[in-house]
Amino acid sequence: MNQSKNHNRDELVKNPCEDNPDCEQGACSENDAGTSQIEETGSVLTLHRDSVIHCLTIIGQIEGHYVLSQQTKTTKYEHVIPLLVSIEEDERIDGLLVIINTCGGDVEAGLAIAELISGMKKPTTSIVLGGGHSIGIPLAVAAKQSFIAKSASMTVHPVRTTGLTLGVQQTFEYFKRMQNRITNFVVENSNITKQRYNELVLNTEELVMDIGTILEGGEAVKEGLIDRVGTVSEAIEALYEMIKKSKGA
Hints:
Elements: H1 2-12, H2 30-41, E1 43-48, E2 51-63, E3 74-76, H3 77-89, E4 95-105, H4 107-118, E5 124-132, H5 136-141, E6 145-148, E7 153-156, H6 169-188, H7 194-201, E8 213-216, H8 217-222, E9 228-229, H9 232-248
Helix pairs in contact: 3-4
């Protein structure tokens, strides 16, 4: 049984030349396969300590129903959503590491990804590097254990929109309900209270052109948004510990 499972793991990360008759011997490598996967989905598989983990990067702006310009770094939700489903269903993958460096983006797309991560049964960890702003906050707290780098920051602010907006009561009510969806998700998946989160969202004394709060690494942990300040290696180590406990159970 163990030999069969190890064989499946090897197949998951094997050299693509082995099954490609058109490839000259040595023309391809595991690095080539990994580079291709990174370019297409922003993710990579790693095999270590008899465990396979999938590393998913969420960078730039979360692209939703509208296609952004080619000059904008984006994470496309139509790529990430089916990828997360396949990670959850693939028995060869033991855990998920989410690396976040995002300025925010489409609220519904970000929440959809966050809901998928939070609903996964497999061990998950996340780490914020650089920034996890706006809708990046639900994405960060969605994992079972969250980390943030000392130099990273998270900007908490209300829902905003660009373009034409109708100045009627229904519009403001819609924004309020959307903000409540985000707030409730963050509160349910972190250790911050709803009252405190709303205080951070509506803070008028910190941002010059907006309302909200910027939390640096240690401050995000102190407020209860993130579990620990740490590095990538610490996030991976925590993920391996979770996988070990999961296998033991």
